[in-house]
Q: What sequence folds into this?
């Protein structure tokens, strides 16, 4: 589903995505309120969401969309390369953040990645987000008592920490001397316990829980 207040932009993104054999655009909406209504009727897997729109903005709509069970993944697509929007979008539950000047191939790849449960961030956004964590500008929201983060087992906490460090399932398996399939089972369990949908959201929770800290 494509959500943008500009008709030409909406139609352009929809045409790019609908031309792919494995992607189908189930509908488009011009604002957040219309997006919520359309999502309830069409049950999309991925919502491509603009931020600045009249009426209900994209951040509010994202929080509403992702705040229910079996929610769609949201990929925020915007002209605005602003840190505060990135943080708000990810906190609202977005699985990715892409700029509107991205190449069509990057847009298509991002939609597929988000649909598969992975997160994606535009390279300049990712670079600044990492820098922000590194210098401590993005502080953990909540740090529970050490040793009992969200009821995770010690092994689950290890896996979550490695996910937050950016390791793949294979690399985590090598690090912990366990099978890749076992790593996938742990990650699926982590997603369920933490109420997250992808690795980007899991990484944010790792910072929130204090498992990963700036410069660690």
A:
């Amino acid at each position: 589903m494509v959500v943008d207040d500009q008709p030409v932009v909406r139609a352009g993104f929809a045409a790019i995505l609908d031309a792919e054999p494995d992607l189908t655009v189930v509908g488009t909406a011009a604002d957040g309120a219309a997006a919520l209504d359309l999502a309830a009727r069409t049950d999309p897997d991925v919502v491509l969401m603009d931020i600045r729109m009249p009426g209900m903005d994209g951040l509010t709509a994202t929080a509403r969309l992702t705040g229910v069970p079996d929610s769609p993944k949201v990929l925020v697509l915007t002209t605005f390369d602003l840190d505060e929007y990135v943080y708000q979008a990810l906190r609202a539950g977005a699985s990715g953040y892409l700029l509107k000047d991205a190449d069509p191939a990057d847009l298509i790849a991002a939609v597929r990645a988000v649909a598969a449960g992975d997160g994606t961030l535009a390279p300049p956004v990712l670079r600044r987000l990492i820098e922000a964590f590194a210098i401590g500008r993005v502080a953990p929201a909540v740090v529970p008592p050490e040793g009992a983060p969200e009821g995770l087992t010690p092994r689950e906490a290890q896996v979550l920490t490695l996910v937050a460090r950016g390791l793949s399932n294979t690399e985590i398996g090598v690090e912990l001397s366990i099978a890749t399939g076992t790593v996938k089972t742990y990650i699926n369990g982590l997603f369920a316990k933490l109420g997250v949908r992808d690795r980007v959201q899991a990484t944010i929770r790792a910072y929130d829980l204090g498992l990963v800290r700036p410069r660690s």
